[in-house]
Amino acid sequence: MNRWVLGLGLLLCYALALAQPRAPTVVFLNPGYSGERFWTDYSRYMQDAAGDLGIELKVLYGERDPARMLGNARQVLDGEHPDYLIFTNEQFQGPVVLRLFENSKVKLFALHSTLTEEQQALIGGSRERHGNWLGSLVPNDEEAGYLMGRDLIALAKGQSTELLAFSGVKQTPSSILRLAGLQRALNEAPHIKLVQAVHGEWQEQRAYEQAIGLLPRYPQVSLVWSANDEMAFGVMRAAAELGRELHYAALNNSDRVLQTRIDGRIEVLASGHFLLGACALVMLNDHAQGLDFVEHGGKDQVARLLRTVNRTQSKTLLKRLARPDIDMDFRQFSLLKHPQQRRYDCSIASLLE
Length: 353
Hints:
By secondary structure, the protein is α/β, with parallel strands linked by helices. It is built from twelve helices and twelve strands. It has helices spanning about 1-20, 35-55, 65-80, 95-100, 115-125, 140-155, 175-185, 205-215, 230-240, 255-265, 275-290, 310-320; strands at about 25-30, 55-60, 85, 105-110, 135-140, 160-165, 190-200, 220-225, 245-250, 270, 300-305, 305-310. Helix 6 crosses helix 7, helix 8 crosses helix 9 (about 230-240) and helix 10 runs antiparallel to helix 12. The protein is globular.
């Protein structure tokens, strides 16, 4: 009798184990440098979310080198296949990744930057020609560029002045979209003249060298719009050496830029996209459990994570991001917890409280 009960118990345990969904495996082809603060933090928050969700996550850094990025993709293809592969369209390499995996069972997801309209016109969008490309999640880059431009222009208080813009890498969709947002803000402000938009390639030193040459050429410039924080710091260094006092708008979440916003040396700051990868993992985990995000916001989604933050919010964010664990349970954004929600609502709101 005891053996029978024991055997039945073991059988029930085995059946329950089989009934539990297997934790999905995910590889993220991170395009950044392995020592680059933004991208390492980006991966750190993804690992935090993976821990909450029970996902096995592996991150491969592309070191901002297209050949390295594609080499990482081939490494995944030649090895043990994950359930999901997350890629970016950095340097417009997305179509190559899609072609590499088109005959595999790996499900693909574009993160942070997806294929451009021109690229999709040639090879199709998600769930079209490449059926294993599930969709995409990108930040509201155009809106962020617009908000930064609008708030920076407001500092002119209606007076005519000139603006100098520093964009990122030319072939990066986020750089293109943020600059488009700035142009939208300029279209609403005819009293502001954009004298030049240059590609600082996200780098402080390059932006510094550009600003050393440009600022003396444009003595009437009082506003500087920068698509990230590093380029803003480069311009600030050049302006200090040239004795110029300027108003700055920047974007990011580094300790340095948050402190500079608190100090008032940068007067307009957008932040929030650092949680984008973690939000993507929530969507993919739901998909693995049979809850398709296509029915909750569509296959290609824009997360309105980027927002401008004031001094008080920057101080709060600086403290929260300084912790080893930001104390956010990413399960709160899952459809498993909110099956009736129409779309995902992943945000940094709780980090600003």
